[in-house]
# Entry
Amino acid sequence: MVHQCEEALLQLFALSHSHRILFHSGGSEGISFVLKAHLGPLHIEATDHPAVHATFDWCRKRGWDSKKGELCNLTYVNNETGRVTTLGEMEELKRKKGALIHVDAVQMPGRVPSLKLSSDLDFYTFSGHKFGALPGSGFTLIPKSLYATMMPLIHGSSSSIRGGSENVMGIQSLLLALTELQENFAYDHLLLLKQEFTAKLKQLFEERIVFFSGEGRNYSPNTMAFALTGGVSGDTLQTALDLAGVEVGRGAACASGSNRPSHVLLAEGVDESLAKGFIRISYSPLMSKEQFDQAFTRIASALKTWHTKCI
# Structure
C-alpha cells in the first residue's frame, strides 16, 4: 500500500524518474530533517516559516561543515501574503549559486495552477492537513541520487531513512486528497473570486484598507492579507469575524496566540503599527461561488461594524 501510494504521488508531481518520497508527520518535521541532515552552510529568507528560522538557528549554533556546498531554503507560496516564487525563479537561483535547493511547498497544493514540479530542484516538503489529508501526515521529495546519503531522521530501518511504524492511513489520505484536488481544482475560478473580494472591500473602505496580498499569478488565488487603518488591531478584527462565524488568521497558524506583528510583513518593510492590524483570510481551493458570496456577506458586515466602532 505505501509503495503504491509513493508511486502514484510521484506521478502526480511528474517526478517518478528523479525522486523518492520520505513520509513523515508534516511540514515542520520535513523542514527540520532536510536542513539538519545537510550538515553544511544554509541560506534562508527573512520571510520563511518560523520552523525554518528555528532550525537554522539550531544548525548555526551546532556548527556546520563549511567545506560542504550550500543549501538554500525557498518558499513556494508564502503562508501569510500568498506571494508565489515560481519554479523558474528557483531554477535560476540554483544555476547562479550552484546550491542545493529545498522548497517549502507546504502551501503549494491548491494555490498554483498545476501539481507538476521541476526535477531540476532537489527537495520539496509538504504537509497533508494543508490540502485535506489527515493531520499528522506529510512527506518530503528527495532526489534518488541523494536519498541514501541523507543522515537518517530516525534510525532502525533498513529500507527507509525514517525508522518506526509508518502512518499507512495518513499516507493513503495524502494520495486521496491530492487526487481529488487535481480533479476538481479550478485555478482561474479562484482568481476571479479573489479579484471580486478585493474590489468589493476596496469599494467599501476605499483608502481605509491596505492589502498585503497582491493579485494575479504571482500570488495565491485564495489568500488575502489586509489591515484597516485608524488603529484597528488585528485582534479586534479577528474577534469581530469570529463572532460572525468566520475563522481568520494572524501570521503563521502555528504561531497563533502571539501578539507580535508578523515577521513576514516586517521583513517586507511594513510599518509595525500597521502590521499589528494585519489579518489573513484563506478559503478552500474547492470553494464555490455560492459559498464565497455567503462568506463575503459575513466578512463585510463584521468589518464594517467594528471599523465604525473603532473610529
User: Anything to note?
Assistant: Residues 39 and 64 are 5 Å apart (CA to CA). The two ends are 59 Å apart (CA to CA).
